[in-house]
Write a structure and sequence with these properties.
- The strands form 4 sheets. The chain has a 6-stranded mixed beta sheet, sandwiched between helices. A 4-stranded antiparallel beta sheet has the order 2-8-7-4, with no helix packed on it. Strands 11-10-9-12 form a 4-stranded parallel beta sheet, sandwiched between helices.
- It is built from 14 helices and 17 strands.
- Among the domains are: about 160 residues, Rossmann fold (3-Layer(aba) Sandwich); about 70 residues, no CATH class.
- The protein has about 450 residues and is an alpha/beta fold.
- Helix content is about 30%, strand content about 20%.
- It is globular, with a radius of gyration of 24 Å.
Amino acid sequence: MSIRLLPGVHAPHRKNTKDMAPVRMPPPALVRIPLSMNIGRPATPLVKLMEKVQVGQKIAEAGGFVGAPIHSSVSGTVKKFDDLLLFHGGTCKVIVIEPDGEQTPWEGIAPPEVTDFDSFINAVRESGVVGLGGATFPTSVKLKVDPEKVEYICVNGAECEPYITADTRTMLDDGERLSEGFDLLHRFYPKARILVGIEDNKPKSIKHLTELNRGKDYVQVCALPALYPQGGEKVLIHNLTGRIVPAGKLPIDVGCVVINTSTLKTIAEYVATGKPLVEKYVTVDGSAIKHPMNVIAPIGASVHDVVEFTGGYSVEPGKIIMGGPMMGMSVPSDEEVVTKGTGSILALNAEDAVLPEPTDCIKCGRCVNHCPLHLSPADIETAFRLKKPEDLKVLRVDLCMECGCCAFICPACRPLVQVNKLAKQDLSKYNAKLKAEADAKAKKEAEKAEKKGESANG
């Protein structure tokens, strides 16, 4: 196939655990399962204090259409409802469960009856699955589109972030189940061509999925150059189909749907067995980790418990990152927990954790040349520093996917992606102000017109 690359960067791969099959850890002393694990409203608890629960039992219902239910990852007792401190300083509600060590499956687990498109979408929703690549958008909402409009389903197996190999292991160890997912997609989106995008630094995954799906004319496994951020939704669509998702539009507007490999595997598993999303493949790596490995961790397990299972820290970590080094978030402590969107835990030593001191911008233009969406991070930084939200609007900072290519490639080590995130907040406030002013003006004009009409009638 012809590859049409958008810009990006060649980040070091560091796929140290690519040949390590994941190992399931036992339940820890406590799990704290967050009620906010997806884009959209938090889930609503269904359990009470001291209630006994089992693995796979629904313990929280979706908080709205854009939401997903939550299931217990352990069997045990609900001990309390608590608050969990998040990386950005906010908190979210958690259900704290004390495992009994038995991991007893919930007696109600059974394959759902999937007979038509609506029952398929309902099964996806009931599985609790969200975008497991990190986006955490409820998958049932993404897939609830007119099948007639879907021309391409882009299956994201790029896993372009350094270190992370959780999706790689899914493709290698659960390839048969993933192939069942391809068949499900073909069944309910019969006109769509399924394109599986995998970076060429994963030859085993490419070969394995190609062999498993040989003879399926609706599936094509595509080797893509290892170029970060190959797994970005708009980037993947362009590089697989040649199509461009316009600003303000969704993939379905250009006939595409994107789904992560681990997400699709989870859906296929739920349809086949009734087992919902209760655990995650998590890559544990970094210069402060004694024994890097892939772990099957129960949702709600703490970073500390997961790291201890791998053998602990080799040195005191200087920084802990949930996710990859490009788009992941630094967390305040290892009391943070594994969520539906957790793909990796990186613990860096003190030396690797220190960011270089930024120097003055030299106007080299590298940030512009390497931005996948052709933005101008240097100009955005200037507009942000000068407090000019009107310029941020013109520069379309709202389109930034926060991939970090600009900061990575900058020879002056400017914190460009961090500034973009703050600038997006400023632009949001500016847009809200403009809307409030427009609404007030419209209201005033309406009142004036009403008074004028009353005068005319009087």
